[in-house]
C-alpha cells in the first residue's frame, strides 16, 4: 500500500495539508503544477514532498484527507441527533454540505483522475453502508416501518452511486449537494410514513 500521509508531520504541515485540500476544492487540481501549488500555499516544493512523493500521490492523499475530514464532520452531525429520522437526515444533508464545498472544476478533475475517482467511489460505498445501519437502527427502534427497509437502503445506495457517477446531475441538473438533500427528504418521508398499512404491498 502506498504511503498516504507521513506520521511525522508537524502541526505546520498539517495546516499546510488542510490548505492544499481547500485549494483543490476551490480551484481543481488538473491544471496545477507543483510550482503552482507551492506558490499559492507560500511554501517550497520540498515541503510539498513531505506530504507525498509526486503530484499524482499528492492529489490522491488530498482526496483521502478531504473525505476523512468530511466523515468527521458528518458523524458529529449525526451524533448530535437522537431520532432515526433526524439522524438519517443529518447524515445525508451533511454529506451534501461537504460535497457542496467542492467546485465543479474539482469534481470534474476528480472524475477524470482514476486514483482520486476510486477514493470517491470507495467513500460512496462506505456511506451507503452507513445509511443501511441508520435505517436498521430506525426499524429496530420502531421509528421506521420495517416493510421495504432493505429496499430503501438499496435505493439509497443506488442513488448515491448514481450521484457520484454524475447521472443525477445529467438527468435533473441537481449538483451533488442538492441531490443528497433531496435524497434525505424522500428517504425519510417514505420510511416514516405511518399512514399506510405495513402489510400493504
TrEMBL record:
<keyword id="KW-0804">Transcription</keyword>
<dbReference type="GO" id="GO:0000976">
    <property type="term" value="F:transcription cis-regulatory region binding"/>
</dbReference>
<feature type="DNA-binding region" description="H-T-H motif">
    <location>
        <begin position="33"/>
        <end position="52"/>
    </location>
</feature>
<dbReference type="GO" id="GO:0003700">
    <property type="term" value="F:DNA-binding transcription factor activity"/>
</dbReference>
<dbReference type="InterPro" id="IPR001647">
    <property type="entry name" value="HTH_TetR"/>
</dbReference>
<feature type="domain" description="HTH tetR-type">
    <location>
        <begin position="10"/>
        <end position="70"/>
    </location>
</feature>
<dbReference type="Pfam" id="PF00440">
    <property type="entry name" value="TetR_N"/>
</dbReference>
<dbReference type="InterPro" id="IPR036271">
    <property type="entry name" value="Tet_transcr_reg_TetR-rel_C_sf"/>
</dbReference>
<protein>
    <submittedName>
        <fullName>TetR family transcriptional regulator</fullName>
    </submittedName>
</protein>
<keyword id="KW-0238">DNA-binding</keyword>
<keyword id="KW-0805">Transcription regulation</keyword>
<dbReference type="InterPro" id="IPR050109">
    <property type="entry name" value="HTH-type_TetR-like_transc_reg"/>
</dbReference>
<dbReference type="InterPro" id="IPR009057">
    <property type="entry name" value="Homeodomain-like_sf"/>
</dbReference>
